[in-house]
Amino acid sequence: MKDLYSENDLLSLSSQLKKRYTLLGVILAVIMGLFVYSMIIRVEWLSVVLFALFCSVAIFFIELFCMPLHRYKKLIQSALKGRTHTETLVYDHEEAEPSLVDGVLCSGLILLGEPDKHGIREHRYYWDKEIPCPAFNSGDQITIKYTGKNIIGYEL
Description:
Elements: E1 2-3, H1 7-40, H2 44-81, E2 85-101, E3 104-112, E4 122-128, E5 141-147, E6 150-155
Antiparallel strand pairs: 1-6, 2-3, 2-5, 3-4, 5-6
Helix pairs in contact: 1-2
C-alpha cells in the first residue's frame, strides 16, 4: 500500500510554521515598538492607527498564512497517528468541483461499495489536491486506507 503522507511532510510543515510565526513576531514587534513610542510622545491619532494596524496585521497574517498550514498539519497528524480504516472498493469517477474538507482543498472521489438490498452504494472519499491523483479508470478495484473521509493511502 502506498502511503500519501510521511513524517518528513510533518517536519517540513512544522518548519514552515515556525518561520512564518517568527516573521509575524518580528513584524508585530516593530509595530508594537512604534506604538509604545507614539504613547510616550503622546500622539493620540498615531497610537490609534498603530494599534489598529497591529491588530489588522496579526489577524490578516494568521488567517492567510498560518491557519491553512495548521489545518494541513492537522490532516497529516491524523493520517500518521490517528485511527485508520482500510476498505476495497470500485472506482467510479472524480467529482468536477473541488471540496473544502476541514480547511483543506480536496477532490471528491466516488467509489462503489458492495451491493446490498437497496442496490450499489456510492461512497465519497476525499483526495488531497496537493498530491497528484493517479489516473484511476472507472471500474478499477482499489484498496484505500482512510481516516475520516480523507484517503491517506491506496493500492491498485
